[in-house]
Write a structure and sequence with these properties.
There is one protein chain. By secondary structure, this protein is an alpha/beta fold. It has a domain at 1-105: Conserved hypothetical protein from pyrococcus furiosus pfu- 392566-001, ParB domain (Alpha-Beta Complex). The protein is 49% helix and 16% strand. The strands form two sheets. A five-stranded mixed sheet has the order 1-5-3-4-2. The protein has a three-stranded antiparallel sheet with strand order 6-7-8, covered by helices on one side. α4 (108-120) crosses α5 (127-134) and α5 (127-134) packs across α6. 25% of the residues are buried. The model has no long low-confidence stretch (mean pLDDT 88).
Length: 276
């Protein structure tokens, strides 16, 4: 039988296992903290013992809430915990994901991200092994989608703002672009301007995705460089061609894309087009 033990917060390692949630909802966390302060902890966290400490399996947000409360009330310095004995680390990971899915579904990005991260850490031999173990109840179609979305994580992690907000449909469209070797075009579009939120980033890459999908629908060649859509004529300068319903847009970016250079570019374009 699993035992409940009150464990000091600092005796629980919350980072030994990669967490499946990559975005913490501040409002939801504040509500949870207020609820625990008023009503106590309804469900203990889950840990397993290591040599000198405990490793957190499930209850990351509950642990965070206790940390906040302990700053002003020492009665929260220890947290009730179930002591589990998982068969293996992958089994502990699967338990964590199952518990979180029951409480609040993970986003499509978070599901794909935990698959990639645990595989990179050597917990699983392949992406397929990780998918099968961490999401054993997923249908064959669902596992295929998860596999496709892991490509997006591998290629675009660190470039997307709050990717947890992207829908499964959006991630599958990005996966389609990666599968057709349009990765560099998407990456360039995402790095042309910093500080964009998730919605603004999507608006920036949407024309590229729409162009590719139009080519596919009309059985046209989808080779990313025929015609050329993304070039780096010299270090510090990148030029990306974007199709729009009204023509084309050229995005010129990079540390050497100065006002003086742009004036020269416009003059040369004007001269060249006037001779056509």
């Amino acid at each position: 039988m699993d035992k409940i033990k009150h464990i000091p917060l600092n005796a629980i390692n919350t980072t030994a296992l990669p967490r499946d949630r990559t975005l913490i909802d501040t409002n939801a966390l504040n509500e949870l903290t207020a609820s625990i302060r008023t009503n106590g902890l309804r469900l203990p966290v889950e840990v397993y013992p290591t040599e000198n400490t405990y490793t957190l399996i499930a209850g990351y947000r509950r642990h965070l809430a206790f940390q906040t409360l302990a700053q002003t009330d020492e009665t929260f310095a220890k947290i009730p915990a179930f002591i589990r004995t998982p068969i293996s680390i992958p089994a502990a990971m699967a338990a964590m994901i199952e518990e979180n899915e029951m409480r609040q579904s993970l986003s499509p990005w978070e599901r794909a991200h935990i698959i990639v991260r645990t595989t990179d850490m050597g917990q699983f031999a392949t992406i397929d092994d990780a998918t099968q173990t961490l999401f054993p109840h997923a249908t064959r179609q669902k596992r295929a989608k998860l596999r496709a979305m892991t490509d997006v994580v591998m290629e675009l992690d660190g470039l997307l703002t709050d990717p947890e907000l992207l829908t499964e449909r959006q991630l599958m469209r990005l996966s389609n672009a990666i599968r057709h070797d349009w990765t560099d075009i998407i990456q360039t579009a995402l790095t042309e301007q910093r500080g964009l939120n998730s919605r603004q980033q999507w608006a920036r890459i949407l024309p590229t995705l729409t162009e590719l999908e139009g080519l596919i629908a009309n059985n046209h060649p989808t080779t990313s460089n025929r015609p050329r859509r993304n070039i780096t004529p010299r270090a510090g300068i990148n030029v990306r061609r974007e199709s729009t319903p009204y023509g084309y847009t050229l995005h010129i970016s990079g540390r050497k894309a100065t006002g003086m250079l742009m004036s020269s570019v416009l003059e040369n374009i004007e001269l060249w087009l006037s001779e056509q």
